[in-house]
């Protein structure tokens, strides 16, 4: 156990070190002024962040992934499709309703719509789309046509929203697709897909196991867009207190207790659901159950440490960096946004779960290194482009419509495995560090550039951009693989032809 934890700490150190180094380096330049207290709190938070990521990844390997695989495998082996579909729908609803980020989203819109109703709608949306994803696996249907249909439906809702004069809700709605697929749901849902697909088998079982996160990310967007049509007033946004002192002293205790409650509630719902299935269907040995329980404890500790560290040290620094860099001009904030975007994805806990699973399921044909490079470039580009949108103040749809058209278009030309991985990656990349460091960075920049009144329209939407750009970069890997394979075949054919010609000349 100690050796495994040491390995995870090493991985986490490599992930967190770049973003920490960049913040420390820029603090010594004239571009920003960070106090000794701010840098000390940030440095200590970074150390705890490393520990939190390591514990989470260890817990995911021991508990979240095996639980998902066992549930998927056990339900599929029962050959009772009604039970499989019902359980998947219920678990999709329960896991989403307990997701901490969803409560934050509901709080943002509580002034104009019922927050409880929003949580229920989003939960049912994710449950229905998880059900659709499981049906896709069972029926062995392609992911690309389903995504094309659902995204066309999504943009039809968006057009209706614009026609009704509710465009301010759109960035928030698209962001909801990223925040509801959080670090608790991603490992479990991805493993659930693997368990079902490998049990069903077939020639494309590995490819068929991906796509659950992709479809589950669509449900919240459609739910929020639909509810926005019934909203009764203008959406208002109150700028939070991002000062470093807000989460120290008594504030730290409040933050810690709140985080413990949110994470505990999320994990408890998964554990209860798994427990019911264990006693009724799975019947796993006690040794395996003990390992899962230990893994749950690691997951709980890791997420509490991670989320608390982010709230205490990373959110205030992200906001201040955005504010001060924007005051220095457009070029510094755009350049910093691109660079920080490239490294922040390294520290997202669920990204490492995805990369490990991709390398394992594909047998190494898609490596962790290739995935990380594609994600880093995509996220860096998304955040840089988001800051440019903020500077000029144009609609988010000018990015999303062409971006998704390119993504969906590529899906018809690249291997299906890359499409499934890419659309899953979009939901995974927009994790808690994105919403707790990058979003405050964007809010700080927007407050400096356009004023606090423009935050909802101009700063929000950055999570949606982070979820979109990996779709293009990872599918580009697939496009490159197709071209490389064709080139290898041509070279091989030319060598065969040359050899045949040489034989003919020889016999003559």
Task: Explain how this protein is built.
This protein is mainly alpha-helical and 508 residues long. The chain has one domain. Helix content is 81%, strand content 0%. It is built from 20 helices and no strands. It starts with a helix and ends with a helix. The mean pLDDT is 83.
What series of H and E elements makes up the topology?
Answer: HHHHHHHHHHHHHHHHHHHH
Please provide the count of β strands: 0
Distance between the termini: 71 Å
Shape: globular
Helical percentage: over 70%
How much β-strand is present in the residues?
A: under 5%
Quaternary status = single chain
Q: Give the overall average pLDDT.
A: 83
Secondary-structure content class: mainly alpha
Radius of gyration, rounded? 23 Å
Largest beta sheet, briefly? Answer: none
Please summarize what this structure is.
By secondary structure, the chain is mainly alpha-helical. 81% of the residues lie in helices and 0% in strands. The protein contains 20 helices and no strands.
Key words describing this protein structure:
single chain; 508 residues; mainly alpha
């Amino acid at each position: 156990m100690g050796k495994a934890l040491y390995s995870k700490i090493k991985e986490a150190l490599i992930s967190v070190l770049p973003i920490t180094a960049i913040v420390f380096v820029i603090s010594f330049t004239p571009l920003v002024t960070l106090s000794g207290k701010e840098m000390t709190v940030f440095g200590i938070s970074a150390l705890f962040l490393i520990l939190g990521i390591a514990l989470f990844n260890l817990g995911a390997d021991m508990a979240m992934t095996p639980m998902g695989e066992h549930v998927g495998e056990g339900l599929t082996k029962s050959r009772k499709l009604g039970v499989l579909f019902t359980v998947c729908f219920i678990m999709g609803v329960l896991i989403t309703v307990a997701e901490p980020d969803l409560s934050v989203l509901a709080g943002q819109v509580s002034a104009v719509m019922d927050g409880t109703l929003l949580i229920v709608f989003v939960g049912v949306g994710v449950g229905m789309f998880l059900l659709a994803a499981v049906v896709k696996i069972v029926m062995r249907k392609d992911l690309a046509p389903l995504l094309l249909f659902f995204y066309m439906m999504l943009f039809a809702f968006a057009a209706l929203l614009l026609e009704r004069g509710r465009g301010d809700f759109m960035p928030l709605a698209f962001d909801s697709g990223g925040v509801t697929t959080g670090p608790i749901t991603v490992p479990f849902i991805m493993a659930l897909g693997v368990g079902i697909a490998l049990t069903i088998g077939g020639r494309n079982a590995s490819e068929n196991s991906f796509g659950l996160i992709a479809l589950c990310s669509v449900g919240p967007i459609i739910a929020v867009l639909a509810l926005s049509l019934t909203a009764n007033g203008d959406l208002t946004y109150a700028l939070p207190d991002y000062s470093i002192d807000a989460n120290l002293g008594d504030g730290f205790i409040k933050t810690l207790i709140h985080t413990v409650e949110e994470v505990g509630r999320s994990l408890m719902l998964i554990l209860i659901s798994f427990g019911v299935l264990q006693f009724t269907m799975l019947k796993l040995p006690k040794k395996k159950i003990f390992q899962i329980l230990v893994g749950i404890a690691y997951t709980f500790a890791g997420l509490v440490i991670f989320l608390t560290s982010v709230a205490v040290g990373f959110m205030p620094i992200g906001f201040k960096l955005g504010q001060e860099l924007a005051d220095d001009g457009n070029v510094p904030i755009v350049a910093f946004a691109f660079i920080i975007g490239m490294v922040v994805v390294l520290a997202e806990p669920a990204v490492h779960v995805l990369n490990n699973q991709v390398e394992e399921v594909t047998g190494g044909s898609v490596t962790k290194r290739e995935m990380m490079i594609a994600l880093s470039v995509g996220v860096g580009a998304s955040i840089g482009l988001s800051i440019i949108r903020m500077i000029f103040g144009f609609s988010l749809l000018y990015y999303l419509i062409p971006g998704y058209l390119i993504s969906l278009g590529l899906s018809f030309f690249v291997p299906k495995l890359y499409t499934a991985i890419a659309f899953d990656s979009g939901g995974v990349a927009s994790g808690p560090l994105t919403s707790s460091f990058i979003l405050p960075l964007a809010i700080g920049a927007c407050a400096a550039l356009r004023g606090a009144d423009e935050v909802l329209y101009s700063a929000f939407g950055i999570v949606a951009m982070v979820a979109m750009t990996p779709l293009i970069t990872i599918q580009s890997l697939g496009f490159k693989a197709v071209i490389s394979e064709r080139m290898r075949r041509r070279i091989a054919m030319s060598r065969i032809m040359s050899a045949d010609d040489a034989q003919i000349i020889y016999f003559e």
